[in-house]
Amino acid sequence: MLSKNTLFALSLFPYIGFLWFMTNSGKTPRLALVGFYVLLIFVAVTIPAGIYAKVHYGKDLANVDWLHGSAELFLTLSNILVVLGFRQGIIAKQKS
């Protein structure tokens, strides 16, 4: 059975494929696309934050509130951008 860390790392490949498709399709609202890319920032921040939590506090990231909350900020931002981007796309489609 794969460890959660291995599975997490392997999941990046299909996500990068998804980003490639969404970017090249030209049909994804720009703001939503930015939100999908911000999710990569969340991943990039979460990995070192998890290591820092383990090394300096001896705990998992989820158990170090200030660090976990700071990393989750990027996930929240990503979600907001995706929702607002698709909302803009729907409104623009309805107007045309």
From TrEMBL:
Keywords, A to Z, come to: Membrane, Transmembrane, Transmembrane helix
Stretch forming the signal peptide? none
- Is Transmembrane helix one of the keywords UniProt gives this record? yes
- Which parts pass through the membrane? 6-22, 34-53, 73-92
Keyword Transmembrane helix listed: yes
Alphabetized InterPro entries for the sequence: DUF3593
Kindly provide the name given to this protein in its UniProt entry: DUF3593 domain-containing protein
**Species per Swiss-Prot/TrEMBL record:** Aphanothece hegewaldii CCALA 016
